[in-house]
Design goal:
It is built from 9 helices and 23 strands. It has 384 residues and is an alpha+beta fold. It has 2 domains: 2-182 and 300-380, Zn peptidases (Aminopeptidase), CATH 3.40.630; 184-296, Alpha-Beta Plaits (2-Layer Sandwich), CATH 3.30.70. The longest helix has 20 residues, at 113-132.
C-alpha cells in the first residue's frame, strides 16, 4: 500500500499505476470529435500492457477506435471489454479545473473522471495483470475503445460494420450494478405535404400545419407498451417547422416536426412507424405523411437471465467488494444498445462508482476504480 500525495492532500492507494493512468486520461481533453490525443495515449498504454496486437481502426476525419487483442494459451471464449474515449463538453460552474485531475479524499474530480475514463483505466490496469499471467488465460480478450458514444455512436457503428464477434462483453461504464437491459431511442422526422392555395381560398388547399397539428394532438392515441422494469415510454414532440419564410397569405403546403420515442424491447422500429401510419388513416388526414427514423437509432434490449457466467461474476464481485452484485435496467442509451441487438453480443455495463455524469464537478470514487479493476482481472482469468 502506497501513500500518494496529490493537490495538497493524501490518499492511500494500493495501485499507483492505475491512479496515474486515470490521472493522465482525465487531463487529456477528449470532447466528442477530439478523441485523437487520448486515443494515442490509450494505444501506447495497451502496447505497454503486453497485448498481442494493438491497432487504430480508422472511422474517418482523422478519428479512430483503438482495438487490442490478447490470446491465452488454453481454449476458451472471446470476452469483449469496451469503453468510449469521448466526453461531453465541460459547461459552466466547475469549482475545479475540469481538465485537471483533482483528488480530494477518495474522489477524483475532472471531466470524464466518471464517464468514462475511470472504466478505461480499470480495463487497462486489469489487462496488464492478465498479460503477466497469460498462461492462466483461457480463450481471447478483445478490447475496443471507441469514439463518438456521446453523439452519434459513429465509433461503435464502424466496429459493427467491420465485423465484431464475442461470447460476452462488459462495457466499463460507471455502473456499480450490472446493467442487463436498456430503453431504446428513436428520433422520427415527420414530413407533412399539403397543397398550397391562396389564403382567402383555404378550401382549395390542404393546410400542412393544421394537418400536422391534428396528428400531434392525437399522439396519445398511439399504443405504448409497458415493460416490467422499464415502464412506459411516451412520445414527445421536440420541434416543429412550417409556413412562410417571408410574410405571404398562402395556405402552407409543408411542415415537418421531430418526435422522440424512447422504447421498450417490444417496441421495434416497425412497431412505431406502423402505429404512426395507422394513426394518419384513423384520423382521415388528407395530407401526405412521411416518417423517417433519424440517426442514431438505438434499439432497446433486455438480456434477462441470459447473461453468460453471471453467477461466477457475482461471486468475484462479492469477494472483491464485500457487496452483492445487483442487476438493473437503464433509462439512458449506450453503445450496448448497438452491440447487443446488432452485433448479437450479450453485453452488460459494469464499472466504478461515478457521480455528476454530464454535470459540473464530475467525480469518481477511487476505491471503486481499484476494486472494479480487480473484478475485471479475476473474471478475465476465470476458467470458463
Amino acid at each position: 500500500m502506497v501513500k500518494s500525495k496529490r493537490n495538497g492532500g493524501d490518499i492511500v492507494v494500493e495501485n499507483t499505476f492505475l491512479l496515474e493512468t486515470l490521472k493522465q486520461l482525465v487531463e487529456i481533453p477528449s470532447v466528442t470529435g477530439q478523441e485523437q490525443q487520448v486515443g494515442e495515449y490509450i494505444f501506447t498504454a495497451l502496447q505497454a500492457c503486453g497485448m498481442d496486437t494493438v491497432s487504430r481502426q480508422d472511422i474517418g476525419g482523422g478519428r479512430f477506435n483503438v482495438i487490442a487483442k490478447i490470446k491465452g494459451t488454453k481454449p476458451g471464449p472471446t470476452i469483449l471489454m469496451t469503453g468510449h474515449m469521448d466526453t461531453v463538453d465541460v459547461g459552466d460552474g466547475w469549482s475545479t479545473d475540469p481538465f485537471r485531475a483533482v483528488i480530494k479524499g477518495e474522489k477524483m474530480y475532472g471531466r470524464g473522471a466518471a464517464d468514462m475514463k475511470c472504466g478505461i483505466a480499470a480495463v487497462i490496469d486489469s489487462l496488464r495483470a492478465v498479460a503477466e499471467r497469460r498462461g492462466d488465460l483461457c480463450g481471447e480478450i478483445l478490447v475496443a475503445f471507441v469514439c463518438d458514444e456521446e453523439a452519434y455512436s459513429t465509433g461503435v457503428d464502424h466496429l459493427i460494420r467491420q465485423g465484431i464477434h464475442a461470447d460476452f462483453g462488459i462495457a466499463a461504464e460507471p455502473e456499480w450494478k450490472a446493467i442487463i437491459g436498456s430503453v431504446g431511442k428513436m428520433l422520427i422526422k415527420v414530413k407533412v405535404q399539403g397543397v398550397a392555395a391562396h389564403g382567402n381560398r383555404p378550401d382549395l388547399g390542404i393546410n400542412a400545419i393544421e394537418e400536422g397539428g391534428k396528428f400531434l394532438a392525437a399522439l396519445g392515441k398511439l399504443e405504448v407498451l409497458e415493460h416490467p422494469r422499464l415502464g412506459r415510454q411516451e412520445y414527445v414532440t421536440l420541434k416543429i417547422e412550417g409556413g412562410f419564410k417571408e410574410y405571404a397569405i398562402v395556405v402552407p403546403e409543408y411542415c415537418e416536426f421531430l418526435i422522440n420515442k424512447h422504447t421498450v424491447p417490444a417496441e421495434t422500429k416497425e412497431f412505431v412507424i406502423t402505429g404512426m401510419e395507422n394513426l394518419v388513416k384513423q384520423l382521415g388526414l388528407r395530407a401526405k405523411f412521411t416518417f423517417e427514423v433519424q440517426p442514431p437509432y438505438y434499439p432497446a434490449f433486455d438480456l434477462g437471465d441470459q447473461v453468460p457466467w453471471f453467477d461466477q461474476l457475482k461471486e468475484i464481485f462479492r469477494e472483491v467488494t464485500g457487496e452483492e452484485l445487483k442487476t438493473d435496467y437503464s433509462t439512458g442509451v449506450s453503445d450496448n444498445n448497438r452491440l447487443v441487438p446488432d452485433a448479437g453480443i450479450p453485453m452488460i455495463c459494469l464499472g466504478p462508482k461515478g457521480y455528476g455524469v454530464h454535470q459540473k464537478d464530475e467525480w469518481v470514487d477511487l476505491k471503486s476504480v481499484e476494486q472494479i479493476s480487480k473484478v475485471y482481472q479475476k473474471f478475465l482469468l476465470l476458467k470458463k
